Amino acid sequence: MYCHLIHYPVMTCGIARNSGPQLALANSSQSWSVRPAGRRGVIRGPSLRIGVRKMPAKDLKSVAIAAVAAATLMALMALASPVFAAGQLIAGGGLGGVLETKEHDVRVVVNNGVAVTEVEQVFVNKEDRIVEALYVFPVPKNASVANFSMWINGQEMIGEVVEKERARQIYNSYKQVKRDPGLLEQVNYKRFEMRIFPIPARGEQRVKVTYYQELEVDHDWATYVYPLATTVDNGRVNERTTGRFSFSLEAKSEVPITKMESPSHGEEFVIANHSEGYSQASLEVDGGDLSRDVVVSYNLQRPQSGIDLITSKEASDDGYFMMTITAGKELEQQEKGMDYVFVLDVSGSMALDGKLGTSRRSIESFIEALGPGDRMEVMTFNLQPNLLFNELKPADEAGHKAATEFLNSQQARGGTILRPALQTAYKYRDADRQLNVVLLSDGITEAGEHRELLELIANRPAGSRVFSIGVGNEVNKPLLEQLARESGGLAAFLSPGDDFQRQAQAFRRKLTRPAMSQLELQFAGADVYDVEPQLLPDLYHGSPVRVFGRYRNGGALKVSVNAEVLGKPVAESFETDLPQVDDANPEIERAWASHRVARLMDDERRNGAPGSLRNKIVELCESYSIVSEYASFIVLENDAEYQRWSIERKNEKRMGRDGAALEARREALQQMREEALAELGPEGVEKRIDEVSGQPANGANQPLAANSPVTPASPAAQPAPRQSRGFDFNAGASPSRNSGGGGGGAIDPLTGGLLLVVGGYGVWTSRPRRPKVAAKFDETTA
Known about the structure:
The chain is an alpha+beta fold. Among the domains are: 3-80, no CATH class; 306-329 and 515-586 and 720-774, Immunoglobulin-like; 339-512, 3-Layer(aba) Sandwich (Rossmann fold). Helices cover 23% and strands 34% of the residues. The strands form nine sheets. It has an eight-stranded mixed beta sheet. Strands 27, 28, 29, 30, 31, 32 and 33 form a seven-stranded mixed beta sheet that branches. A hairpin with a 2-residue loop joins strand 3 and strand 4. Helix 3 (355-369) packs antiparallel against helix 4 (397-408), helix 3 (355-369) crosses helix 8 and helix 9 (587-607) runs antiparallel to helix 10 (614-624). The longest helix has 29 residues, at 650-678.
């Protein structure tokens, strides 16, 4: 018998029996396979590899040891079984460690579609020993971790971002002397890990993580998801907080908010609409269950197409801007039928987190939303495609019933190979109809397949698009986004707590109105550069495009937009001013850098050259305090330790500026709450109080206490007015230059990118098929 531990919980183990190997494995949520190899066999699973070989039967001692090893193996398998819980601490240094969540507080402030999330947690070590703690958590789409702090000796110590391997070396050096380091790493596209050492026996540790996020906006519904479901090791964490779990979200919008709700928690939330541009949601429980994502959505009243612009600029540095282009309701609905091929991933990974069940319900809702002229096919895949009809069928009641029965019969098992499924879906292309391939998957496919998939998308049939829908939190967002973006489609990500029917109806509405293609932007007047991202997609009704960029000098800026709708040109423009100083929206600086990092990572995947752009990515991450697969947060005990390692306190400075802007925003929201409160009660109540008391209700003419000096209050920093212009994007409209006024709209999520050209006076962007534009591209360093 041999037994060798590769990497917990992955184990290689051999068991000897003269009658041949006898070992049965069962796992309800994973797929296991047995592969014979001569006199040896290998049992494989997602996190387990067992080698089995024959040995002489006379060695009874080996048989006994093998039995013990098998029992131990089954115990480790139980520990390795996935459960779904909030980001939790896992005790290291041996099995059986117990760490509890004493407090879990989440505060979210949304400013015109950009959310700042602060998560503060207090963990308690229940062990009579010092432990290293591992905290595992996911972050949502479009989110960038902006800060990691620990409380050391009663003081909050803000972390700094350094190259990943160096951060790990620094962290390990402190473990040897039991000092107080913390490490936050991005393990892969779906998971972040935080390591903290030491947590004293029976002691507590307070930590805070801050991340910035651009909210998904779909047909005037902005959705915020706080992901609580993740895969961790069973037996070492629990799904509940032993103390308080609180969640608060405040949303401020220049466009009126008509409704706020929580699809995930419903009446558990208290929701207050303080004014037409400010709503608040609050949830608080003791000993709460942390196994469900928290989803909050609010509806915006956006009447027409428009452009919105906000800025950030320090006096001593170049500025940043964030521009959102929204296609409004004036685009007429098209009645022509289309073809849909729904491609459902049924590989083993889809069993986790209820992803298969969520996908089934989503497809059923999509089919219900189809029109009478639409046709459909339903396909599942793991190692190979499995077709329902083998042809396109009308999206009628009979087709819906057959699809439901087919989907309900599917089980999640086996590996994932996506390319044959997409190749098969493309065969359904009809020359006279639009083909929409709707892929529902977690994107967890073979790494070597990524480049093949991108090549397949690049050579897709004309008139076909891929719409990627990622399900759950354990999802390969970069791959699904890239597949959709490079096919002219869209990517969306669903939480089990989402409203599937509303999502499906919104998806259908996107496709029944014409997309704006050949979208181009021109910036003239101001010195604009480094616009991100570079590839501008089609602009769909209900799915805005967000563009980030930098500018060297403030002053007048003219923005021109050109596009095609149903093959006819449309054009609009507006003029605005870029400020010399604007401290109200510093979060867009990290957002610009985050999109730049994501684009460089995409370039690596497309070129099949991992690590080729590592130095450029690390430079951006360190400059803007962004965690990536190449850079991590490190928290040290005091400023002297940062100096010892020659780590500049860039993030501490940036968080000071970000924190001041966030506090000013909260003060403004508090003022709005007070104004709303003043409107409550019967009309004229202040006058009646004055008559009863004989004194003015506001305390005017009251003597001041002698020991109460009066100091003029410094005015809180207020955001610069957001530049907003509405326009009409009807096909065939005459170009209307310098259109002012108008509707404006919500700051909505980015669904694509921009190709930048820097010229002497203006900057032109277009799709890459125009070589005369692409040849002028000038990319500067950050």
